[in-house]
Amino acid sequence: MTFKYCPDCGAECRQKDFKTFQCTSCQHNFWDEPVTGSAGLIRNAEGKYLFIRRNIEPGKGSIAVPGGCVDNGESLEECCIRECFEETGVQITNLKYFGSYPNKEIRGEQTETSISAFFTAETNDMGKSDKNEVSEIFWLKKDEIDISKITLSDIKAFITDFLRSG
Ligand SMILES: [Zn+2]
User: Which sign, positive or negative, has the C-alpha torsion 84, 86, 92, 96?
Assistant: First the structure.
């Protein structure tokens, strides 16, 4: 992300270094830094894993796990619990941190970067898609997970590492 104009006062910004932009009027600094996200790989009692089909960009139509951006004041765990519930209607428990993965999405002239924490979790719910951000949900056995259908690179890296971890 670049800051051509100040989000506070609308004046022009100048770039100070590789990630710092300063307003030429109010002098506020703005930084090109990643958005924080959180996502979960959810297992049910049958040992199947919950996947979604994304209904929004980036990666519309591709397979993913539920997750999203952290709200102000929210922990990574709270974000994961909230996003999983909002997108698929399942209540998750027993969250375990797996790892963090950076991502970069190019949207027009803007590059948006993120860093997301990925958790494994469990549920007893069947779930349903929210029909908004998610077009459908499905449960897959480990050997049914097709990495090639995952296009978002952070989720692809997470699931690849998860499958390798045994
Ligand atoms: Zn300003």
Answer: positive
